[in-house]
UniProtKB/TrEMBL annotation:
GO terms for molecular function: protein heterodimerization activity; protein homodimerization activity. It comes from Pan troglodytes. This is JAM3 isoform 7. The lineage of its organism: Eukaryota, Metazoa, Chordata, Craniata, Vertebrata. PROSITE patterns: IG_LIKE (PS50835). Keywords: Signal.
Amino acid sequence: MALRRPPRLRLCARLPDFFLLLLFRGDLAGRAEILGKTSLKIWNVTRRDSALYRCEVVARNDRKEIDEIVIELTVQVKPVTPVCRVPKAVPVGKMATLHCQESEGHPRPHYSWYRNDVPLPTDS
């Protein structure tokens, strides 16, 4: 899954030595706030909150107008039991395809196959 553009929020805090600017947009409205002086708190985090977040800081007495940092947030979602499709019977000499898939896990889970508790090699 590609990361979305940094969320656009607008929240300012003036502190004695610097000015903090956080930009908020979209579904974060009403779910995010500045916690303390310099932290961003997001409630009810979902997979859609996986994104690049940017924090901009303006120092009043610095030659540089804006300093910023981009932070990558990855929200992890536990995978669920996979749904599997397995043929009931396969005639000798024919091909059998065993298919298992899970759609909830994030980042996407890794799949491993075993035959009689022995790992099967993966295709390269």
